[in-house]
Amino acid sequence: LDQVNSVSPTIAASIIQELQDQRSNLKMIASENYSSLATQLAMGNLLTDKYAEGYPNHRFYAGCDNVDAIESEAAQLAQQLFGADYAYVQPHSGADANLVAFLAILSAKAQKPVLAELGQEDPSKLSREDWNKVREVVHNQRLLSLDYYSGGHLTHGYRHNISSHLFDVYTYSVDPNSGLIDLDQLRQQLHEVKPLILLAGYSAYPRKLNFARMREMADEVGAVLMVDMAHFAGLVAGKVFTGEFDPVPHAHVVTSTTHKTLRGPRGGLVLCKEEFAEWVNKGCPAMLGGPLPHVMAAKAIAFREACRPEFQTYAHKIVENSQALAEACVEEGLNVLTGGTDNHLLLIDVAKTFGLTGRQAESVLRECNITLNRNSLPFDANGPWYTSGLRIGTPATTTLGMGPEEMREIASIIKLVLGNVTAAKTASGKKSLTKYMLDEQILAEARQRVQNLLARHQLYPELNLDLVQ
Ligand code: PLP
After folding, report:
1. Quick check: 107 and 116 in contact, CB under 8 A?
2. pTM for the whole structure
């Protein structure tokens, strides 16, 4: 950090400030975690200086021997960790991993047959006219995915995302009464839509999914089953989701991030059956630029950590904690969607119980040093900006070593705060969607109780904050 400080004291200060911030706030954002210092150091070094377009032993640049070793190790560990036929570790993020997967599936299933008809395997050798024939077929494929308000991700066909330009998108929703994905209803929709891809996976759904059943259903209509396990990859690696709930044996293609429950560096990953490997491997040049060797090195470290038995214990504790938190929230009178959770997150309706928007609840809890995010709920009347809900996750607090007792204390603090906050009035006398009022004493009590929890579970105790004067 002294080196950083000598160039930019403001950036050095921000790094230290961020550590202080993360040490003094309870991190309950379901998509965040704390990666190990080994992972962070593998990422922050000279590997960032190397270009390595292509894939191991097949590069468009000279001098890639070390990057070859790094990428091969990361891919081999990912394959071993998840029991996958093939692993591709270049995607820079989860969004990129999904694009690589989409393009691979479109290439293998939509483009290839047209090229065969045209008698030309290499698209770059087609005339403009023939290439437009290919494009017309490729761009008319259907994607059936979980809708955004039911917990699907932006990259699953949301109108403001490029995925909605790539596909003719159809969505499925949770059942309005149970809040659950009803596989019988989905099967019916699948038979009506007959998509090229059935996409499963979520950012905000608290239950596990039966991927064996989804694969059977996809096979009935000849669809490709793609699973985006970005959120729950750590639960798959840690053997919490096994058998029919493990996507890897059942899906044709699985995508993921590496930084959420998996606790690695910020990045993406694609796993697939042999049939798609050739296409997935062409992520660069299909849509990725040069790979990030430093991040692939950090992925290799994180995958190795996740192969250890301790990671399985960690993954089971994440769920034990989210279930303890959900139970305690229910006991405190909070409205927990679907009544609980099977994974690392729970959703809470703050509009029904407290008359607040998700935005107000998020802000007031942050003021009390609990960091979490507001989230749209199924069929949310408050829209995606203000929202009616909170998404609360336990991966980070579990990394800190917290357990069910701490979860009960957190539920009690959340109730203390939300039960005492009131929406402020706007100048015209309407209920504000953003502003709120909370008694100073309640604020002080909540902050003190959060600090008591954090004092017993310090983040990176080995890091010295006094490096920069
Ligand atoms: N897929 C899912 C299900 C996600 O929840 C997310 C991120 O929140 C992504 C993809 C995108 O990941 P990234 O932010 O790394 O692009």
Report:
1. no
2. 0.97
